[in-house]
Amino acid sequence: METLELETMRCEVNEHLARLRLNRPDALNAANLAWVQDLVTATSYLAQSSEIHVVIVSGEGRAFCSGLDTKELAKGKLTRDWFATWEKGVSTLATLDAVTIAAIQGYCLGGGLQVALACDLRIASSDAILSIPAVREGLVAALGPMRLAHIIGAGPAKRLCFLGRRFSAQEGLAMDLLAEVCQPELLEQRALAMANELLAIPFTALKHTKRQIDQAFTQDFESLLNEMVDAEEDCLSSPEHKAVMAEYLEELARRGKTH
Predict the structure, then answer these.
(1) For residue 179, what is the domain's CATH number?
(2) Shared-domain flag, residues 166 and 240
(3) Which of 52, 120, 175, 231 holds its CA 20 to 30 A away from the CA of 238?
(4) Residues 58, 9: Cα–Cα separation, whole Å
(5) Residues of the domain holding 109
(6) What is the pTM of this model?
(7) Paired strand residues for 74
């Protein structure tokens, strides 16, 4: 297993599965400057490998991520460059070819929710508390409002972003923000189960499907159509597709249905 150990997070790569562990538990994984810089380093590291098919993002300790470090915010340490670096890390996570799963426990507030929104799928423990309260701090939640609107729609996104109220995992599930809610002791098991299910699916097809969904709000129909044809050609020539079809033909032969 390959490991990238940083000051506030850790990457572990085991064949096609990677783990990105937010690792500042004493501060509930709050994002200070080192954390933001580490996010850029970690996501760039993950983006460089074509062998990583699934990434699980999780937080060490009692929280997924409690958001921006309010001590640094109050002291005026969060500058224009800070937020540019922040979004570089989050955007790199959002645009990975790998399918990403956020495994959320405890606090998932502000910047923590923004990281979760950058993931493709979100599983939360029943004790998770979520919110996107940037406006209450006199800030814009980076590109979190845009990502939230894409996931749950403009109306619900405005309600959550304008009011900044905390909501439960069950509420997140009801609004389709979360794919699944489980008991806290089952979170690791459920995240790995979803990862293994995804790892069993041909990655070339998953990768192109993810790209099409991500571009659905920005690309015109003709561009999507042209990219789809190229994607299908890539899928048809992929070893995963050929293996699935070979298995299908073998099954037909076993049943005596070769014609």
Answers:
(1) 3.90.226.10
(2) no
(3) 120
(4) 10
(5) 2-199
(6) 0.90
(7) none
